[in-house]
Each structure stands twice: as C-alpha cells, then as structure tokens.
Amino acid sequence: MLVIMRADASQEQMRLLGEKAVSEGFRVRAVPGRDLVFVVTGERRAPDPATFAGQAGVAETRSLRHGYELASREAHPDDTIVAVGGVPVGGRAFVVVGGPCAVESLEQTLAVARRVKAAGGHILRGGAFKPRTHPYSFQGLGEEGLKILAAAREETGLPVVTEALDVDQVDMVERYADAIQVGSRNMHNFPLLRRVGRSRKPVLLKRGFAATLEEFLGAAEYVLAEGNDQVVLCERGIRTFSDFSRNTLDLTIVPALKQVSHLPIIVDPSHAAGRRDMIVPLSRAGAAVGADGVMVEVYEDPCVALCDGAQAVATDDFDLLMRQVGRVAESVDRPLYKKASRTLRAVAGSVA
Amino acid sequence: MLVIMRADASQEQMRLLGEKAVSEGFRVRAVPGRDLVFVVTGERRAPDPATFAGQAGVAETRSLRHGYELASREAHPDDTIVAVGGVPVGGRAFVVVGGPCAVESLEQTLAVARRVKAAGGHILRGGAFKPRTHPYSFQGLGEEGLKILAAAREETGLPVVTEALDVDQVDMVERYADAIQVGSRNMHNFPLLRRVGRSRKPVLLKRGFAATLEEFLGAAEYVLAEGNDQVVLCERGIRTFSDFSRNTLDLTIVPALKQVSHLPIIVDPSHAAGRRDMIVPLSRAGAAVGADGVMVEVYEDPCVALCDGAQAVATDDFDLLMRQVGRVAESVDRPLYKKASRTLRAVAGSVA
Amino acid sequence: MLVIMRADASQEQMRLLGEKAVSEGFRVRAVPGRDLVFVVTGERRAPDPATFAGQAGVAETRSLRHGYELASREAHPDDTIVAVGGVPVGGRAFVVVGGPCAVESLEQTLAVARRVKAAGGHILRGGAFKPRTHPYSFQGLGEEGLKILAAAREETGLPVVTEALDVDQVDMVERYADAIQVGSRNMHNFPLLRRVGRSRKPVLLKRGFAATLEEFLGAAEYVLAEGNDQVVLCERGIRTFSDFSRNTLDLTIVPALKQVSHLPIIVDPSHAAGRRDMIVPLSRAGAAVGADGVMVEVYEDPCVALCDGAQAVATDDFDLLMRQVGRVAESVDRPLYKKASRTLRAVAGSVA
Amino acid sequence: MLVIMRADASQEQMRLLGEKAVSEGFRVRAVPGRDLVFVVTGERRAPDPATFAGQAGVAETRSLRHGYELASREAHPDDTIVAVGGVPVGGRAFVVVGGPCAVESLEQTLAVARRVKAAGGHILRGGAFKPRTHPYSFQGLGEEGLKILAAAREETGLPVVTEALDVDQVDMVERYADAIQVGSRNMHNFPLLRRVGRSRKPVLLKRGFAATLEEFLGAAEYVLAEGNDQVVLCERGIRTFSDFSRNTLDLTIVPALKQVSHLPIIVDPSHAAGRRDMIVPLSRAGAAVGADGVMVEVYEDPCVALCDGAQAVATDDFDLLMRQVGRVAESVDRPLYKKASRTLRAVAGSVA
Predict the structure, then answer these.
(1) Which one, A192, C313, C336, D78, has the greatest CB density within 10 A?
(2) Taking chain D (352 residues) in consecutive chunks of 10 residues, what is each chunk's mean pLDDT?
C-alpha cells in the first residue's frame, strides 16, 4: 500500500502512522527520493487502504497489486539516477561498461582498461569471483583480482563494477569496487540480495536467464526494501530454443521496465549472444530501444581468454562499438556520457 | 554442393555438367544473380565434390553442409535486393511497411493508407485472409479485401503486401498484390512455399514462432528452389515464457542471418510485442541492429479494431515512428528510402 | 454460446431457434453425440445468452468464454471415442500406433507392419508425404507410398494413419488411409483443417511445437466446426532449451486436456525425444499419465532409415515396449486394446 | 580425466600418482564407492591421459569430455543409493516424499505428517526458510520451523528434508534435518553447493527452472567434488510458454540422466504443474518413466495454505496418490519402499 502524506503533515503525524502500521503487524518504509511518501507492507496479509485513509496528515492511500512497491513508478514517478563512482546511470546520458570477463592478471586488466578508457568507455567491469558451470573450471582470482581492478581504476579513473557470489564475499567486494554485481545465477539468491541491500555501494542486478519481469523487479525490491535504492537492472538474454546464439537478448523488457519502474536498465549483449560478431549490432539496438547503457566484454585477444573469449569484442572492435553506439544513442537524444564539468558533476552527484 | 564454372566455360560444358549430375540422380540449379555458379543437390544422398571437380570447365566444387544452398552467402555473396512494386528491400535504404492488421472496409483501409503515405511509409500491408486461432473469429474479407487493397494502392501509389493462407489462394493474391506474404503459421507449409516459389511476385516469409534459423532458411530455400529468388525474410517474435509481451522479438537473428544469407530481413514488432507502447522503441531497435526494414500495424483507432488493436499504433504514433526510426536508421547509414530519381530507380530496378 | 433445448422441444422450435440465430448473423451447429444441444457462434460479436433464453423450447443458454465450444466438455461431457478402422481410440482400452517414419518400400513397410501386428500393436503409421526442413531431403513416395500402406493393411489387418500436407493431397489420402494425420507443422494450416473437417475419415491432429492448449483446441475446433467429430489429439513435444532431447514431451497437457475437452489424446515420444533410448520410458509415462494411446516409430534397422532413424525403436524394442506399456496401462486400469469379440465390436462401432 | 589403477597397485604407487598430478597443477579425487579409481582435473587446462598412462600401477587413463566426472556413469557405473534417515533413495524401491510447502505451525505440520505416514509415505518435506519472489511475502518460520519438523519426525518416524537458502543457514538445517534441500533458485549458488558438499547429510538438489542437463550435473559435481557423494537430483519443471501449467515437468530428463549419471533422481510435480488436479497423474508418470521417487506437497486444506495451496494435494488425495503411484511403480518393478526388515535395513545402510 502506498501512503502519501499531506504537504503540511507533521513529524508527529508520521510517527503515529508508523505506530499504527506496526501495531497492526505491518512494516513502513519511506520511498527514497520522495518526501512524505511511504510504502506499507504485510507479510501475511495486505494492509487495507481504507483503514489508513482517515489517519491524520494522510492525503491519499492506494493499494498496489504487486510485490515491488519501491521499484514501481507508482511510488516513484521520476527516473532514478544511480551514480557508479561518479558516473550517472539512468540520466539522459548513455553509459558504456567494458572490461574482461575474468580478471586474469594485472597486465591483461590494465591493457584492457586503458583501451576502454581511451575509446571513451565509462565504467570498468571484470570478474574476480566467477560463477562457473563446472567446479573444475577457473573460478577467478578472488581478492587478488579485486586488487587488480582497484589498481586499474587508480590508473584510468574508471569506476569498477564486479560480482559477489555470496553473502560472505560482499564485505570484500565493497572494499574494492564502486558497484557490486549480483549475477544472473544469483538473481534469486535472497540472502545475497538482502545483504547488498544493506550496502552503501550501488548494485548491478542481472536478470536471471528465465526470470519474468515480475520476478526481476521482485529481486530488485529485496535490495530496495533493505534501504539501498541504488539499483541498476541489467538484461542479459533469456533461455530459448535458439540455434544460433547462446541466449536471446530480450530487448522488449526495456520499454516494459521503463513503463512500470523508475530504475535504470542496461543491456549486456556479450552474455546474451555468446558470439563476438553480434555484440556491436546488439549494443546499437540496446541504445535505440531506450536502455540507459550497455555492458560488454572486451579482451586484448578474445581468442586466448581463459573464460569466454567467444563473447568478447577485441579492443579494436570496442573503438568501433563506441563510435557506432554513440551515433545511435545520439539519434535517440541520449548522447554518450562525457565526464561532466564541475557544475554538471555537482548536479549528477546531487541527483544520485 | 556448389559448382563454380571457369570464366571461359562453354555452354556445352555446362550442359555436360547438368547431364552428369542428372544421370547420377542429382538436380542442378543456377544460382540467381550469379553467372556460372550452380547448386547440385540430391534427395537421398549428397553429391561428392571430388566427382565433379575434374569435369571440363569447372573451376571449383565445394560441399555445403546445410540445406539452404541458394539462400546462403556462400552461393551468393552479395546482398539480394527485392523490389516490392518498385520499392527496393535489402539495399542501403531502410523501408517501412505499415497498414491495418485486417482489411475491414474501403474507408478504413484508405484512411490508414493515406496516413502511411503521408508519413513517408513505403509499402501498405493488410490482411484479406486472416489466420485465426478459433474458427468463429473474423476470417477476413477475402477477394473483397484484396480489391480494397488494390484501390488503396491506386490512390496512394503504395505497393501492397498481403497474405495467402493456402495454395488455392495464391492465384487470387497474385492478381492484386505486389508481394505475397507467407505467415508464421505457414512457414512450414511446404506445398504453399513451393507454390509461391513458382510465382513472379516477391514473397514475404515470416519466421514461425518457434522456428530455428536453420528451419527459417530451409523454408526460404523451398521458395528459391522453385525459381523465385525474390524473398524477404521477416522476424516477428518467438514463443518464450515472457509475462509482459505476447512474444519475444528476437533481434539477435538479424546479424545471424546477415552473416549466413544474402536475403533481406525486416522485423515486425507489432506481432512480437502485442503491445502498442512497444512498437516504436522496438522499431528503432530493428533499424539499429541492421534490419532492412520494419513492418507495423497501423490503425485509425487501435481500440476498436476487429482483430488486434492492441498490437497496432495509432496513425499519430506512426508519424512519430517514421521520424524516430528515420533518425536511428540514418545513424547506422541506412537512410529511409526516398522515391528514387529516374536514374536511381533504374539502378534499383536492375539489381532487383 | 451453448443452447440446450428442453427434452420435449419440437422440431419446429429448433427450426425457429436456427432461424432467429441466422437472422441475427450467427451460425448454429448441433453438438455431435448430444441430442438437443447446440452451439451458436458469431464472427464479429458473440451471441447474448439472454436473448435466446426465452425462446420456445429452450431449457438453458450459457456463454462459453473460449473458441473451442464443440471440443469442450461443457458442450459434450462424455469422452469421445474415435474409431480408426475399427480400433476405438479414447475408450477404456489403450492403443498403440507403430510404423516407420517414412514409407520407403513395400518390403520395408511390410516387414515393420508384420512385427507391429505380431507384437500386438493396433494401428499402422507411416508417411507417404513427408514435411522436411530442407527442400532437397527425401519428401516421401507420394501415392506409391499410400498404395504400400494399403497393401500392408491388407496383409496385417492393421488400420492405417498417414499424413496429408495440403488440401490437394486430402482426396488421395482419404482413398487409402483409415485416418488422416495433420502434422505439427500444419496445426495452424486452417484451410487444411477445414478440408479434413469435411472428410468422413477420422483426423489425427498433432500439436504444433509451440502451440498452447488454447491454440491446440482451436485447431481441433476448425475440424469439428465443419462437421467431422472424429478427432484424435496428439502431443509430440514442444520446443524448449533442452540440450539432451530434440523436444520436450509435455505430458502435463494430457490431464489438462482431459479436464476441458472430451477428445481422445495420444502421445508421440519418438518426435518429442528424437532419441531411441527414451521411447520406451516415455511411452510408459504416457500410459501412466492418462493418455489414450501412444504412437511410435518402428524400424527394422533404425540406423539405416532414410529420415529419422534416431527417433525410432527397433522392432525388437517394440516387443519390449508393448509388454512394458501394457503392464503400466493395466496398472491404471487402461488395458491394451484387444480385438473385440463380435458384441464388443458392435458397441465400439456404435459409440464411435 | 579418469585414472583406473591396477588391482595390484600399491599405496606407494597411488601416492606417486597424486604427487605427479599435483606437481603438474592438477587435483586428484578418489571416486566414492570405487576402489582404485580416481578423477584428475585441472583448472586452467585438462590433464593429458597419455602423460599418466605409463605411470606405475596405472591400468587405464581416459579423457572425460564433461565437467561432471564424479557424477558420471563412466567413473561410477553402478547406481548410487542415498540413505535419507534410513530410507534408501535410488535402489529398487520407489520413494514418496510428502509434506506442506511451508511449515506454518506445529499443529499443521503434525497433522500432515501423520497423514503422510498413515498413507505409507516415506519422507517428510516442509520449508522453514522459503524463497519468495517478493520480499514482503511470508518467508518461513526459520529455526522454529526446523524444530517443528524435528518434532514431527520424532512422532512419526519420518525422516525430514528441508531447504537451506544460504551458506549461513546450513549449520542450522544440518542440526535438525536428515537431508538438506538446495532449491531451484539456488542450483547455481556455487558457494552453497560447496558448503553442502562438506556436510555429512545427504543433499536434495533441485534442477533450476532453465537449467540444462549439463548445468544440472555440473551443480551436482560441485557437491561431489567437496566429498559428499550423497546427492539426490530432483526434476521440478522448466520454464516454457505453457498456458495451462506453471511450469512444464520435463520427464524426458529422467532417462537422459539415468544414462549418463549414477545419481538417483526424483520428480516434483507440485511445483512443475502448480495445479492440484495434475499432481496425481504426473506422479504416476514419474514412476512409469523410471524416476526413483516423487516429492509432492500435501496440505490438510490446500485452499487456505499461506504459500502455494494451488500446488498441493489434500491429504485425502495423498492416499489416492500412494495407491495409484504404488500400482504404477510395481508395474515397472519398482515397488514402493517398505520399512525394511532388520536384514534389509542393514543392507540399505551399507550401500548408502
């Protein structure tokens, strides 16, 4: 249930509202970024708007049918802008995240990071903890990988996003990264979602490869409900019968999400397609459909990468990608993000 | 098997090649648009390239692993351009096809056609024979609908594409339309594919909603193998578990097809999404990913349409679509098709 | 809309009902196998039960929300039993259909048919017209194949079911076969469905490989609406992401169909799995879940078959299949069909 | 790589093999239940069988192409039998697991457990930690729920299986339960898989709802590789386009798994279908296809259950289920498990 207080509602009235809700077994959360708007939820039954409508200071109460109240546009009509190490995701500017699938060495990571930076990329990605189908595959460098990423940020100035696979890894990832990725395989890992919900770092939440929109926003809501409103969604392809791509990039979810949620959404064509030659065209399509950014894998030499070279562009192709995606993004009035001048940065900082 | 003759091969040498192939139980087809290149196929066994390599006048023989030899880039490296009533599909220019789902009346069709024309659309679509899930639903106006489409072409100059559901309807559709549509539900209707393969009108072949790339090109090959090389492919969404769109538009197939086939490919976001609000963003994405055109449903008033108003844009939105898709198409160097000057038209005519 | 007349309704009252319906633009069909029950449908709008409730002789009118009125249990509560050349499908007895994928020669077909018969199989299947993904694959022997099937029936006494790919093939198939198969790829071929709906032979309708229950019954309704109430449904696997079977046999649809429809349903594990080693276990599962029969491919030597040896059991395995399926079918009180004694046959004939 | 030592291989020879493997960067694991058989794996490259073939005491080395060596039949040809609190899963006897979706109270759980026991069920299931799509839904009673399950075991003698959602919950679940469930949403939670791999309790691993066979066995391998060879697989339905069931129960995976793996596999029709009326027929099908057991949800009154009443059978239907599944299981020579006599129990204990 959504509760909107009157503009002149007093602190005391809000306290009383909370008291009443708690006494009836409900929980109240303030909607981040909106004064005077609250979400009231119940575990075993839904609160009745009529019961709260007459409460002093209340302007309006409204029943919300879904389980993603905080993620919904009904609670938060304006777009959310998430600042990842100073780079605003979800504003007017389009953002490109690039980097190796797995961090393999300082040398490799620095080489890629420099090229991402030189080509105009905005954020560095790279896995230190890798979720792998088989236990005997390379599982990532762990903390050593995180240190390498931090060193690459130091040199290039690019903020870093990297994945935590488990509650116990979050502390460490938080120390080194600018944003914490929750991967597709963990979209339903609710303890992990709760844990990153208590982090002060932004969260990049990837859609599970068979997740519905309802489930995707339900997962985001776990993070928001713990108090972290810095969530970036990421579409990365769904499982289908396709015989020519690893997964099917579901760009249809971008306008669908934009309609019901205020959270930014980026697309990841590397994991979706699993084929190098599709990354540039699908990135262009992501920009055209209205996404807030793309995330791609970049390798110095995709053919020798330890994990998933087949789904990475070479650094030369990344230059091409930046140019082509830049043109498409501009054609939909979403120019590539440029490191803001002092004034603009201040604005971005304040909205985020 | 592909057989490439030497530049100086004689007619007699080609005759002998054909004779040899037939005597061994194979069939030979010339690759349209390429001199001196032939495809040799066998029903019960594949021909052996070695057997034909030494034949007089033969420059090269090559085994092709697939069943879509004529549709493959190996046989025909250059893009095919299909002229639909003078509009080239598959060339550099981007093409927009619009019109009502079903032809319901002359008045309705003319009103939509005029708006499509005024907004800069290139081809008129509309169903006279409608494939409907239930036998009691409106099945289309039949020949009356075809006459209405022809009248709309007469007035607006827009070429017309419309569907034939069955072999027996092709004669009639051929008489009135500029291109014959084979719908998703008929992608595997092989007698129908053979029949339109013997037509002199271009064929718009829609992907079945659970068809693989292999099957899609196999269906196109049925048309090509009968001698009709004017085939436009159309992606229109695949069946998935999606809870927010009717189907999932699979834009990934566009670069996949471009790599292995020379046939033009357009996308249909109306049937894919089944939601009006997604048609414009998905059309932009289609242009960005590298498709040769989009096909959308347009209604004067989508809310009262007999069939599928939910998947049609209103005529006002169609203006917006043309502007936005036009900008994106230009950003990938595929400007919207403009009715060609005399010289250009002659070129388009000759390539098609 | 369902209209149930009173037990004492007169012919004249029924004539008047029909007249009223037609005058309002509707169509009336008698529900086969039920006296005094009618389905009234409209193409552009649904009839209003209230309008017909007061009509003389009418006991009850009821709105049906779906488009498969004649296929629904609401119109026809009892199970339909379809007689295929004297073999009742849909009654208490469980039925096994076996035979080669494609008819390749008289010798091959006779050999398989004899083994099917000897093992206790009930109906012979075999394709004379084959739907093939690529135009250059073996397309079946055509009429020669139909003659071979008829010869195999002559010798073994097994009724024959075989596929027609197109309206134009139905006449010929009708002449030779005991039941006409409409394949998965043609489930949405509405002209073909209408044509077999005017046949006097039973129809075996296979589910399209991405068809919903609603669409499957809609396709059956096309046949029923033309007057042919002898329809057997067949589940043959749906398209999924499976990496270990060609398709996924959807046994869940069997109880789902049994609940909403009176039509018999059999399952085809050969096409679903595409793997020989799964045919026997999936046939057992089909019997256990409540299907009315199974249809499998049988080859003398599956490894040399022209089409799909990989999805066929060898004749020795067919003996095993009959024994194992027989035991399971008995455990759910659906014993294998035994050629009926005179009396029982008469009964089966009358219900069908 | 598989290494099979000679029957007369000495301890010293095995030590030397291990030393060699480790010195080359590989890891060696003994295959549980097989003397003298080892699996050698490498993180960054695969070991070369030729290098180890000549090693003293080695009878045979063989490359295994997959990443589930320990789960494969190649390493372990005989079926594994897992003892859950004394109940053998994977032997000849068929096993039924029943209980509420969520543990809601002592009274409810005891009532259901008594009925499961009375009807002949073998293992009690029930969730104390519930994975829920939305954060505001009932999340389970936690440790209180575990205590209730233990009390129900105390009274009925039924062993208990229940889910742990996270590494941090495993300690607690281990204390109370006889087997630890890893749910579908956690099939790719690799830290959790590793943690239960170090448990001494059996693990019930549910297939992710879009997991391939390869991924499913890869997940099992994570558990096995840590030393816990007591893994029971569970098929629970996959995501498809189905319009009549929540998921599609994929019984095809049962024979596919039986062919490549020695691990027991049970099926869960409750979560697959999401419809009460399908649970009994699908359970019968599970028995017929060759599964080692079924797991179903049972409620005193499914209509008032807090979580998922729609997917539970009433206790009366559970009696019916036991009778019908019992008959089918017997028809495939897999009689329902009966509490073993002293001698048999000892055997079951020793194999497990």
Answers:
(1) A192
(2) 93 93 92 90 86 92 87 95 97 97 95 96 97 89 97 98 96 98 97 97 97 97 96 97 94 97 97 89 98 95 65 88 98 90 44 40
Q: Which residue of A has its CA nearest to D214?
A: A133
A22–chain C nearest CA distance, Å: 44
Task: Phi first, then psi: give them for residue C235, nearest 5 degrees.
Answer: -85, 130
Average pLDDT over residues B135-139: 88
Interchain contact, A289 vs B281, CB within 8 Å: yes
Q: Give partners of A (≥3 CB pairs < 8 A).
A: B, C, D
Q: Which of C138, C185, C192 is nearest residue B43 as measured by Cβ atoms?
A: C138
CA distance A66 to D228: 41
Residues of D in Cβ contact (< 8 Å) with C328: 288, 328, 331-332
Cα–Cα distance for residue pair D182/D203, rounded to 1 Å: 7
Task: Give the Cα separation of A114 and D220 in Å (integer).
Answer: 40
Mutate to test the interface with D, among B133, B241, B242, B243 (most CBs of D within 10 A): B241
The number of beta carbons lying within 10 Å of the beta carbon of residue B313 is: 24
Judged by CB atoms within 8 Å, which residues 256-315 of B form the interface with A? 256, 259, 272-273, 275, 277-278, 281-282, 284-290
Q: What is the DSSP letter of B158?
A: -
Output the pLDDT for position A308. 63
Secondary structure in 3-state letters for A138-186: CCCCCHHHHHHHHHHHHHHCCCEEEECCCHHHHHHHHHHCCEEEECHHH
Residue of B nearest to C190 (CA): B131
- In chain A, residues with a C-beta closer than 8 Å to the C-beta of D209 are 210
Does the CB of D244 have a partner CB in chain B at under 8 Å? no
Model confidence pLDDT, tens digit, residues B180-207 = 999 999 999 999 999 999 999 999 999 9
The model's pLDDT over B65-105, given as tens digits with 9 standing for 90+, comes to 778 999 999 999 999 999 999 999 999 999 999 999 999 99
pLDDT of A302 reads: 65
Min Cα separation A5/chain B (Å): 32
D221·A168 Cβ contact <8 A: no
Alpha-carbon gap, residue C275 to A167, rounded angstroms: 42
C-alpha span between A173 and A191 (Å, rounded):
16
Q: Quick check: A160 and A177 in contact, CB under 8 A? A: yes
Could you give the CA distance from residue C18 to residue C154 in angstroms, rounded to a whole number? Answer: 45
In this structure, whether the domain defined by D82-351 belongs to CATH 3.90.190.20 is answered with no
* Tokens describing residue C177: 């076969």
- Assess C19–B contact: CB distance below 8 Å, yes or no: no
Mean pLDDT of chain B: 92
Taking residues B218-226, report their average pLDDT: 96
Q: What span, in angstroms and rounded, lies between the C-alpha atoms of A89 and D111?
A: 53
Domain boundaries, chain A: 2-12+21-62, 82-351
pLDDT digits (tens, 9 = 90+) for C327-340: 999 999 999 999 75
- HEC states along C265-333? EEECHHHHHCCHHHHHHHHHHHHHHCCCEEEEEEECCHHHCCCCHHHEEEHHHHHHHHHHHHHHHHHCC
Look at B288 and A256 and tell me if their CB atoms are within 8 Å.
Answer: no
Where helices occur in chain B by DSSP H, the ranges are: 11-23, 49-53, 106-119, 143-156, 167-176, 190-197, 213-225, 253-260, 269-273, 276-289, 315-331, 342-351
Q: Report pTM.
A: 0.93
Burial class (CB in 10 A: 0-12, 13-18, 19+), D340: middle
Torsion of CA D21, D24, D25, D27, to 10 degrees: -10
Sequence-separated contacts (24+) of C142-145 with Cβ below 8 Å: C143/C172, C145/C102, C145/C103
pLDDT of residue C327: 98
